[in-house]
Amino acid sequence: MRQKFIISVAFFYTYMCSPPFIEMMIVLLIITVLLLIAVPNMVTNNNVAQSKGCDATIQLLEAQVGAYEVEFNEKPESLEALKDAEYVDRIVCPDDSTLILVDGSVQKADE
């Protein structure tokens, strides 16, 4: 039994404490630290992009409301009227937030 233990320790020392194994563990540690730093930043950037995309959609819809008003001499009753007249393809934000038309101004439904 003692001889088996000595062989196991020798095997561990030979293969697990060799310079290539230690180098590989250091590289994996560095990669892990970089991922721990990068992943939260990517999630934050995704949220900012969704917000900016919604703001851009609102600006586009408001411009199209103006174009509709110039062509038909009246404001559209709803955003669906813009879509039916083929002024826009989408009347929701990229994050699927609902938008509504209030007195010629486009707003998020939850505001």
If you had to describe this structure to a student in words, what would you say it looks like?
A two-stranded antiparallel ribbon has the order 1-2. The longest helix is centred in the middle third of the chain and has 54 residues, at 19-72. With 111 residues, the protein is mostly helical. The chain is rod-shaped, with a radius of gyration of 30 Å. Helices cover 68% and strands 7% of the residues. It has one domain (19-108).
How many separate domains make up the residues? 1
Distance between the ends: 74 Å
Kindly state the percentage of residues in helix.
55-70%
| Global outline | rod-shaped
Helix-strand makeup class? mainly alpha
Poorly predicted sequence stretches spanning 5 or more consecutive residues? none
**Main sheet summary:** 2 strands, antiparallel
Rg computed from alpha carbons, rounded to a whole number of angstroms:
30 Å
Strand residues, percent: 5-15%
Please work out how many helical segments DSSP would assign: 3
Q: Report mean pLDDT, rounded to a whole number.
A: 82
Order of helices and strands: HHHEE
Number of strands: 2
**Sheet with most strands: strand arrangement:** 1-2
